[in-house]
Structures are given as C-alpha cells and as structure tokens.
Amino acid sequence: MVGTNGKGSTCAMLEAGLLACGLRVGRFTSPHLEAYEERVRTGGQDLDPQRTARFLDWAKVNAPDAPFFDLTLALAARTFREDGVQVAVMEAGVGGVSDATQALGRVVAVALTNVALDHTGVLGETVREIARDKARAARPGVPLLTTATGEALDEVTRVAAEIGAPLWTPESRPGLFDLPRPPALAGPHQARNAALAAATLRTLGYGAGVEAALAATHPARLERFAVSGRTVLVDGAHNPHAAGVLAQAVPRADVLLFGNLARKDTAATLTPLLAVAPVRVFTAPGETATPPGELAARYGGVADPDPHAALTRALAFTPQGGTLLVAGSLYLAGTVRAALRAGV
C-alpha cells in the first residue's frame, strides 16, 4: 500500500474485508496513535507487547544500528510468519521504490491511493517525481491499482508500462472499483479509499469481503467524540493535501486545535483550515513541532505547547452544541484521543 494520504484507512478496510473472508490476516501500518503495537496486527488484534520486548532483545544483539522503521518491518514479517498469516496488508513508510517494504517478496498486488506534495526532501520536489517513486513500488506482472488522478496518474501510467505491471484504475476497470454503498468512514474522500480497497479485494479473489470493508472503522480519521455537549472531531491530516480534503469534509467548526511537525509544510497545511474555525488554539505534538507561539502570532489565536492543556483550553472555547476540530498531526491526534477516552 503506497500513496501520500489514505493508506491507513485503505489498509483498515482491506484488513476487515480479508478477515470477513475467513483468512488469517496481518496488517503493518505506521505511525501508531497511542501504542507501538498498533503497527503490527494479526487476526485484527494488536501485537502482544511481550513479543515486542523479545524482538527488541534480539535486535539489540543482532541489528543494533538498524533504522527504526526497518526494525518494525522486520518485527511484522517475523510475527506474520510465526502466526501463519495467509495475506498481509503492508503499508509503505515513505515513497515506494525508496521504501524498506521493497524488501518484501511474494507481492500479489500493489495499491496506490493518491499522490501529492509531501516528504519532498526525500521523494522529489514535484508531483511527477513523487508519483514516479511511489509507482516504482510496482512489480512486473503484478497488478498495480490506483485512484490517483491528473499528472500523478499520467506518471503512474508511464512507470507501469516501463515495469510491465498491469495498471487498473476506476476509469479503465469501473466495475472493479464499484461500491454498493458509501463506506462507514466519514468524509467524501473515503469513497475513493473504499473503491481502492474494494478493487484490491476483488483482484485477490476476495470480493465477498467488500461489505465488511465498507463497514470498517479507523481511529483519528474524522473520529467523533461527544464531550459535555460538544462535538470533537479528531483527524490526523498532517500535510497540505490532507488538510485541504479535511476542510472540504468539515467546512465549519467553532474551534480549531492545531499542531504540526516543523519538517512538514506547516503554512500550507494550516491555510485550508483557517477558514474552518474562527477560534484557534495552537500546540506542539512533539519536540520537533512548529513553535505554537509563532503560529498564534502569525495567524491569530492562543498557544499552549502542552497538548493536554491546549485541549482543555480549546474545549473551554467551544460553545455548548459546538464543534472542536483537532488536526495537523497524527501524533497530536493520538494524544488527544487518549485524553478524550480517559475523560480529559
């Protein structure tokens, strides 16, 4: 599973559909929201932390200098082998051909959600460059399915031809991508993710799982909480493309709680959300966050570097019957949803 946005939602729908078909399913995704073990799932359940601890003991001796993502991928592969997984849904970390998931064998399908500007320092400065990197995750003779559009699709088409991967899109195979109903996940953008999941299931011969895929949920994707008569929407949108999609899905809220990592294009990510809410609270989802005080001074609002304190302030600003939108970082989303589930 490759793409700029929507990978996690599509993986969740694929997992649900494959499980409904009676398969032993593994799922590898990143990042996690609250617990590291969310990254590696078997049979719809997060990894047992004791297995993580045993793997870390092994890694300290055998791979002390390996990158974090590569080690987590290795943990997933080992877990899936030990647990007799029949089909594994594997999400790339960054890019496609440049990603560690290229080490995987026995790939039976490659799904590409969409392409937009993100990780430009690694993947390229233009949509075409990024699309080329992601599309090169394709394998000769292995179906490459995508819901990408525009110049990204043009580049994906070129790469698929070069590699010799059959390319299937909603335009070339409409029946494959057809949905019997909208997905349970909120937001109009989820229809394209669901279409990609449905097409992948059908390609693998598990079309019977489409209904279960459409019923799937995934945390921090326009996730709704009710707090003292207020609605809180938590979303992990963390780049300009995702923020633009979120602004279309939620055109109006009373308060915005926003935090973004400095390595992202914070200004372009925040811009689509400024018109959504007149009141803004800025916070820091981690040590490498864009300073919230700078954001408050530039865009108007209040700043609190502590996400928990910022959440309390944002809720206080939200009127009874009103809506608080939380966005800008999956790390912020994880912190906020944990606080909300604990009763703030």
TrEMBL record:
Its EC number is 6.3.2.17. Residues 221-329 form the Mur ligase C-terminal domain. It comes from the Bacteria. It is an enzyme of class 6 (ligase). The keyword rRNA processing does not apply. It catalyses: (6S)-5,6,7,8-tetrahydrofolyl-(gamma-L-Glu)(n) + L-glutamate + ATP = (6S)-5,6,7,8-tetrahydrofolyl-(gamma-L-Glu)(n+1) + ADP + phosphate + H(+). One of its GO terms (molecular function) is metal ion binding. Keywords: ATP-binding, Ligase, Magnesium, Metal-binding, Nucleotide-binding. One of its GO terms (cellular component) is cytoplasm. Signal peptide: none annotated. SUPFAM superfamilies: MurD-like peptide ligases, catalytic domain, MurD-like peptide ligases, peptide-binding domain. The keyword Nucleotide-binding applies. Belongs to the folylpolyglutamate synthase family. This is tetrahydrofolate synthase. The lineage of its organism: Bacteria, Thermotogati, Deinococcota, Deinococci, Deinococcales.
